[in-house]
Design a protein that fits this description.
Blueprint (H helix, E strand, L loop, with lengths): L19 H23 L5 E3 L4 E3 L6 H4 L6 H20 L6 H21 L4 H21 L18 H13 L10
Antiparallel strand pairs: 1-2
Helix pairs in contact: 3-4, 4-5, 4-6, 5-6
Length: 186
């Protein structure tokens, strides 16, 4: 009896969700990621890679699940961003100076929302670019006003690495949920 030829469509999937072929690819990728991380550590870099892809974790910023654990659902967050935008626009129209803290909250929420939408649609180039643009807007604001709260500043070299701008947003969003001590902040 002839053996059936396995193709990507007919190859059985194991309990881990990988086919035999994918499992061997993953083992090879894991070896390369371990070697790359060892080389980066040896050279004193804080940059680390993880499987799959490899995806850069530029400076140990919180992963999306941790950073957005306290976030509102996306639809409520969008409504909140729109409400904040409207309130700040009304403030600006009346000639009143917009508080720096309120403007930063809006930029932070916009950047975090764009990052969450980009994470939900990794193949959508438009959402990836939007997330990067919003992250850079927050970083520029934080540099100009010295308003960053996380351990890595917006003008540090780590934020220039692959994924650094969006990691900065996650760091700042996570830090934003930690209450400030009296007398701290803006």
């Amino acid at each position: 009896m002839a053996r059936a030829i396995l193709t990507p469509r007919t190859e059985p999937v194991g309990p881990d969700g990988f086919t035999l072929r994918e499992r061997s690819w993953k083992r090879e990728a894991d070896k390369h990621v371990v070697a790359l991380n060892a080389l980066l550590t040896e050279r004193g870099s804080t940059l680390r890679f993880t499987f799959p892809a490899p995806v850069a974790e530029p400076f140990g910023a919180p992963l999306p699940d941790a950073a957005y654990a306290a976030a509102l659902p996306v639809t409520e967050e969008l409504a909140d961003v729109l409400r904040l935008s409207t309130a700040l626009l009304q403030t600006a129209r009346t000639g009143t100076r917009v508080p720096v803290a309120d403007e930063r909250v809006l930029l932070l929420k916009r950047a975090a929302l764009a990052d969450r939408l980009a994470l939900a649609a990794p193949a959508d180039i438009t959402s990836q670019r939007t997330a990067l643009r919003e992250a850079h807007a927050l970083m520029v604001f934080d540099v100009a006003h010295r308003t960053g709260r996380g351990p890595v500043g917006p003008d540090c070299a780590e934020t220039d690495a692959a994924g650094g701008a969006r990691a900065y947003v996650r760091q700042e969003y996570d830090a934003w949920h930690v209450p400030l001590a009296p007398g701290e902040g803006i």
